[in-house]
Amino acid sequence: MTMLKAHNLTKRFSGxxxxxxxxxxxxEGSITGLIGxxxxxxxxxxxxIAGFLNPNAGTVTFQNEDITGEKPHLRARRGLARTxxxxxxFAGLDVRDNIAVGAFxxxxxxxxxxxxxxxxAEKVGLGHELDKLASGLTIAGRKRLELARALATKxxxxxxxxxxxGLNPSEIRxxxxxxxxxxxxxxxxxxxxxxxxxxxxxxxxxYVLSQGKMIASGxxxxxxxxxxxxxxxxxxxxxxxxxxxxAAHA
Length: 250
Ligand SMILES: Nc1ncnc2c1ncn2[C@@H]1O[C@H](COP(=O)(O)OP(=O)(O)OP(=O)(O)O)[C@@H](O)[C@H]1O
Description:
One of its GO terms (molecular function) is L-valine transmembrane transporter activity. One of its GO terms (biological process) is L-alanine transport. InterPro entries: AAA+_ATPase, ABC_AA/LPS_Transport, ABC_transporter-like_ATP-bd, BCA_ABC_TP_C, P-loop_NTPase. Residues 4-236 form the ABC transporter domain. By secondary structure, the protein is α/β, with parallel strands linked by helices. It has one domain (2-220): 3-Layer(aba) Sandwich (Rossmann fold), CATH 3.40.50.300. Helices cover 40% and strands 25% of the residues. The chain contains 10 helices and 10 strands. It has helices at residues 42-50, 72-78, 95-103, 110-123, 139-151, 169-184, 196-202, 220-223, 227-234, 238-249, and strands at 2-13, 16-27, 31-35, 57-62, 65-66, 80-82, 157-161, 188-192, 205-210, 213-218. The strands form 2 sheets. The protein has a 6-stranded mixed sheet with strand order 6-7-8-3-9-10, sandwiched between helices. Strands 2-1-4-5 form a 4-stranded antiparallel sheet, covered by helices on one side. A hairpin with a 2-residue loop joins β9 and β10. It binds adenosine-5'-triphosphate (ATP). Adenosine-5'-triphosphate is lined by residues 13, 16, 18, 36, 38-44.
């Protein structure tokens, strides 16, 4: 079943066409990637899916219901949660209470929210830092916290905006199994990611956005060798140059 259908979405910022008639389908149970060069419009597309921005055109359908124009908190109640590229925890709250903020979506009882927060912290490897102030976490810790805050809302679809950015290779290796485990527990994932190793490792399907347009989609291995994708990242004529160099070295 297709859980999310974001169809023909367009977003203009005064003169700039940030997203231009882009379509993305996310299958239930999948990890779907969204990649593209800087400024391609990925975050803008995410914001329209999560309801933080209204599209100028196009529709967002979640579990067969049209949610275009619906406010973010109502989408969250349906089970659509997102993380932010710039991590902004409540610095003065400890890790447990930061995560509990997400849990309050489903309960008014602080004890229950904290209990769910504790369980969620363990899932992302923050179980031993529950009493620490969020401001005292490392970048890697803050990324995990961001993941936990979204997970505590009990999402059906989790939108991850560059959760691996800023992490070193060993920290990335630690987070990949956590993302896989979240999917194993039944959460569908749509992730913006620049780190290709992670995309190749995790994603069943990947979409490529360039200058606001969706230029390719499919299995990560196939998409990476697509001429239009190589040119979007490396410039016009790059695919031919790479091919020629490959032939010269053969
Ligand atoms: N609120 C805004 N007002 C005006 N222009 C904006 C706004 N938000 C984004 N843009 C512009 O829209 C385009 C797409 O930006 P967006 O952040 O969606 O790209 P991105 O693919 O997420 O980039 P990155 O990989 O660098 O995060 C860029 O040219 C950006 O400057």
